[in-house]
Amino acid sequence: MHSPMRTVAIIPAAGVGARMETDRAKQFLDFHGKPLLTVTLEKFQDSPAIHGIILVVPQDQLDYCAKEIIEPYHLTKVEKVIRGGARRQDSVRLGIEASNGHYELILIHDGVRPLVDPGLIEKVVAAGERERAVITALPVKETVKEVDGNGRVIKTWDRGQLRLVQTPQIFRYEDILKAHQLALREGWEAVTDDALLVEKMGIPVRVIDGSETNIKVTTPHDMALARLLWRSDLKNTK
Fold it and tell me: Which SS3 state, helix, strand or coil, does residue 202 take?
């Protein structure tokens, strides 16, 4: 697939990873012989739907990322490595601004989702050419209950209408830039999902199926599962 619209992947990877319980940020941990972040970046490097990559990392890791994450693995699509902000939403906004309007589509993907399928990337970009905002998500399989501060059930939700949101997500450049800059001006806090910002602007968001293997590595359990899934995928492709 060769997208007629130029698409840049913004990869936020500026978190400290406290829940991983290690002395290194989770995005830099070894994942089958490579830094986990490198494995994620390679998926976008290899995708014909992606024309450029902007990587957002902690300020004190800029040189490390250039020399250890990018250069040894010939990640030529990474055109910028920039410092992140205090919050994820700050890091994403800085990445979008760093694209300088050179791309029509902005794809955002967590740096710690190394198992994103190449086919999913292409499907998201194709959907992004038709819709103004597209996210990937999974149906909820278990019953979801809302509880109060004392652990008492307030409401049981209809899981048929609920989705577990993933990345990648894709937006038109003008929309997502305006949404993030508005969030900064208005002081919107705790924004963990970029689609929420465009929703607040009244822009419809299309949901397409994500992947059960496209997990976010946040805890030691997540890392163990991701390594298991990676080995399983290698066996299936041989």
Answer: coil
